[in-house]
Specification:
Helices cover about 40% and strands about 15% of the residues. It is of the alpha/beta class and about 300 residues long. The protein folds into two domains: about 120 residues, NAD(P)-binding Rossmann-like Domain (Rossmann fold), CATH 3.40.50.720; about 160 residues, Rossmann fold (3-Layer(aba) Sandwich), CATH 3.40.50. The strands form two sheets. It has a seven-stranded parallel sheet, sandwiched between helices. The chain has a five-stranded parallel sheet with strand order 2-1-3-4-5, with helices on both faces. Strand 10, helix 10 and strand 11 form a beta-alpha-beta unit. Bound molecules: 3-phosphoglyceric acid.
């Protein structure tokens, strides 16, 4: 009987785990659950004799992958797979997949919520401002960017999108203003929301050169990854631009300095929570389980990311 491990340091909602179990049991497999683990050893022990593994932001490095003696497939229930050592997977013949789009609405709603919180002066009782008519730059127009645009349209924002991998016609067809360079996006937009993955091309790419181009009232929203920000540039923006705010679902390494020196100009969620909704957990969790069953039963590798 195939054994499917769900290893989540940050657990799925119970309703999602129940639904994942339904898919797994219906296929005649066994579900193994490892939640809120506190040491890497627990993960190494759990992966030792399973055939498949579902994770979230959990780190699947070479050691973890090699510890899975029978491991054939690992599915990241979510979009970003920067937490998986893809080369180690390929070397060991393990298929790695993600579940694109399944938690995107949740992340977009959080990004928008952060914007509302900031423009209303952190709900502090004072007089804030409104999003209608304000410029929003969507940096990368993937699944989250698209949901964000839908919400922003409802709010009457002036929406721009930059994504060198998406055809101009698609962005224009969705009723947004197409932008050809990151420089131009940051120059035009008071609000910029980041939806780029963390990879060799994007790490530390959000730097002072870009950020300093933003107009007065500049607000950067990061529900992507902390690694894409150049933190020296972030601190310089805070220092040189008293109007600058940074709202992030992923705490920067320089968090203590930001909190100490720039009160009222940042928001960091308590824990990475963009995808922390029952709906996102159910969608991504079920998708991951179904992809595993389809892989074993039909050889389906549709969402493979290590090829
Ligand atoms: C993703 O890449 O899908 C999101 O960052 C969500 O990550 P999480 O599953 O750890 O909440």
């Amino acid at each position: 009987m195939k054994r499917i491990l769900v290893a989540t340091d940050k657990p799925f909602a119970k309703v999602a785990v129940d639904k994942i179990r339904e898919v797994v049991v219906k296929a005649g497999y066994e579900l193994v659950l490892l939640e809120k683990y506190t040491t890497k050893q627990e993960l190494l022990d759990a992966v030792a004799n399973v055939d498949a593994m579902i994770i979230r932001s959990d780190i699947a490095d070479k050691e973890v992958i090699n510890a899975g003696k029978n491991l054939r497939i690992i599915v990241r229930a979510g979009a970003g797979y920067d937490n998986i050592d893809l080369a180690a997977c390929t070397e060991k013949g393990v298929v790695a997949m993600n579940t694109p789009g399944q938690n995107s609405n949740a992340v977009a709603e959080l990004a928008f919520g952060l914007m509302i919180y900031a423009i209303r002066d952190s709900f502090n009782g004072g007089s804030g401002s409104e999003l209608r008519g304000k410029s929003l730059g969507i940096h990368a127009y993937g699944n989250v960017g698209k949901y964000l645009a839908l919400i922003a349209k409802g709010f009457g924002m002036d929406i721009y999108a930059f994504d060198p991998y998406i055809p101009k016609e698609q962005i224009v067809g969705d009723g947004l203003k197409w932008i050809g360079t990151a420089d131009e996006l940051y120059s035009k937009c008071q609000y910029v929301s980041l939806h780029i993955p963390a990879n060799n091309e994007t790490k530390k790419s959000i730097n002072f050169d870009l950020l300093s181009k933003m107009p007065k009232g500049a607000t950067l929203i990061n529900t992507a990854r902390k690694e894409v920000i150049d933190e020296a540039s972030l601190l310089r923006m805070f220092t040189e631009r008293p109007d600058f705010k940074y709202l992030s679902d992923v705490e920067p390494d320089c968090k203590a300095e930001v909190i100490g020196k720039f009160p009222g100009r940042y928001l960091f969620t308590a824990k990475k929570m963009g995808a922390q909704t029952a709906e996102a957990n159910i969608n991504a969790g079920i998708a991951a389980a179904v992809q595993i069953v389809d892989f074993f039963e039909k050889g389906d590798k549709t969402y493979q990311v290590n090829k």
